[in-house]
Amino acid sequence: MKKLLAILLMVVMVFSLAACGDNADSDKGESLKVGFIFLHDEQSTYDKNFIDAAKAACKEMNVEYVQKTQIPESQKCYDAAVELIESDGCDIIFADSFGHESFLIQAAKEYPDVQFCHATGTQAHTAGVKNFHNAFASIYEGRYLAGVAAGLKLNEMIDDGKITAEQAKMGYVGAFTFAEVMSGYTSFYLGAKSVCPSVTMDVKFTGSWYDEQKEKEAAQALISGGCVLISQHADSMGAPTACETAGVPNVSYNGSTVAACPNTFIVSSRIDWTPYFKYMIKCVQDGTEIAADWTGTIETGSVVLTDVNEKAAAEGTAEKIADVKAKLLDGSIKVFDTANFTVGGNAVTSYMADVDTDAEFAKDTEAIEDGIFYESKHRSAPYFDMEIDGITLLDRNYG
Amino acid sequence: MNKTFFHVVKRDDMPLWKAWLIRGATIIIAILLVGIISTVVTGKGFGETYEKMFLGVFGRLFEGKTTMLWKYLQDIAILLSLALALTPAFKMKFWNCGAEGQALMGGLASIICMIELGDKLSYPLLIATIAVTSMLAGALWGVIPAIFKAVFNTNETLFTLMMNYIATQIIAYYVYIKGGGSNVINPVAAGNFPAVGNNKYFVNIVIVAAITVAMFIYLKYSKQGYEISVVGESHNTARYIGIDVKKVIIRTMIISGALCGITGMLLVAGTDHSININSVGGQGFTAILMSWLGQFNPFIMVIMTAIVVFLRLGVAKVADSAQLNSSFSEIMVGIVILMLVGCEFFIHYSIKFNKHKKEVAE
Which residues of chain A have a CB within 8 Å of the CB of B60? Predict the structure, then answer.
């Protein structure tokens, strides 16, 4: 009995010591604080891209930040936002996944003094919630550039006699059959086609943003179906590692996979979120309004390519990318120029895109002007969802 | 001759106050251990670890902000309501591992009413419909394994577990139909529980508090509660004194399932206003432990759930602020639950070390 009492007393003592320690370091200034909500964690290339940018931007702007990882697209997102505001006193909340949007809007309505920023969402320009904002980037330009690198690789294979021009078929592992993915693979394909006219492409969908096994299997199925180069829009290492194992060149996304795939990684496009994070922090510091719908571009530094892996890429890839990038910047190349693609064998002159969010997915906005499909003009998130000739969808997955 | 180093003996002689002293000490040591591990892993001060833990659970309560406190009570209420739902079944030694699925089905009934009948019924009628249908849906999901158990003596553990997967897939399919490609059902405005003042969790908490008291009375003072304990002790004894065992099994599982269905309603109509496959989020399994650790006593379960939810929220905050992976808090809660289970073992059994020098007679 005495022993028990002694232990209890010891415990109480430690607690009271701990309690004393608490008060010493509680004079934090009233500086700006940012709360980040991430769908997965660093294991996912998609989220890692955001996490790295958050760290870089907050360090550069000298503000504090708190991050919450593994927040699903549900009420948990609302709960996370409330916790970041109530417990941590965050002044800006950022969430990184498409499905977080409606839950973030719900929190935004309850906390009008806090700014809410959301990547890839579509509702800010119509929701009428003043402190809720969307952001995305013209990543299709980055995909186009990555496609150029892929096309050059195909040309090299044709020149080396490894494949014929007709066998130049690429494979693409997508997550869902949504505009975001469709816009991405179409621009990738058009980039490749701009240097390798005979290219075709097969697309498979996994039905998940992050499923390593499914992505791996999809890549393997595409390879055994005759695809000689693979790219992907899904967030695990599944497709890149399948390519490395099979010795098939891979154009990656969200960041370099060269460490894991030294022999097959060509180049990767990604959105660098640092410029946007700095922008939103700056706005709150200055007391100016954050744009309801912000689009990052090559010019803002939001759309970037990693270094080309000389070991896997065709000769002259880096130079060609720089050349095309300059033309994208001066406007002499437009990614979705209707002169460069057909749908069902016919040229496209008019297309109504679903830009404004509604339950019926109504096609509400004419996106083609002067023969160009203007992606990211009417809102930052992609809305290009045509199925153009040359690309075969092996399956579909709407989630 | 006994050659093992020790053997385990059941003991019934421990006085109640001593058992509770051990439990209390275990809880304090567990919280201390979590603090020490967190401090070592995060590299921050010991005091700061507890400060963050407090912040994660209660928020800035001292500045008069009560939102997080209410959220804490809400989280306790949800876990507790599942533990309460499981308790009559467990007391009957019917291993209902299907709280997850039964709650999901209740939630599904709620969301279907909210979406399909939201603009057709008046508000009180809508809420009543939601309540009745979610209880029916949960009860249905619970009674199917019970009927098979009563009639064919199938294994209820596996059966209820499998029913969870079916429920999850039904929800996934429903979200697919109603989510319109985005995989998310946007919050529905109709059929939400009313907020009391500014507090949207108040109704949930009151309902669970009422169920807690009702369950205590039901188990301890009602005839049905007595029948449940007899069936739990021995089917033969029950039969001998004229209890219809099949009837008790089926009736109890209807109650257990219906209560899970109510949790589903609290989650969907009372909290999320939406549904997805993770709406219950594995709490149906944590609730099994809560029911056990609470020794089937609703009021002890309140304490146990309060501790577990405290740690879950608190350690998550510690992990977040140190930018650790969110799995960290799950590991810590796992350690604490293991310690609590371990402490129950030492309360109910004692270990006798065998003396090897001396020959011990069998």
Answer: 86-87, 89
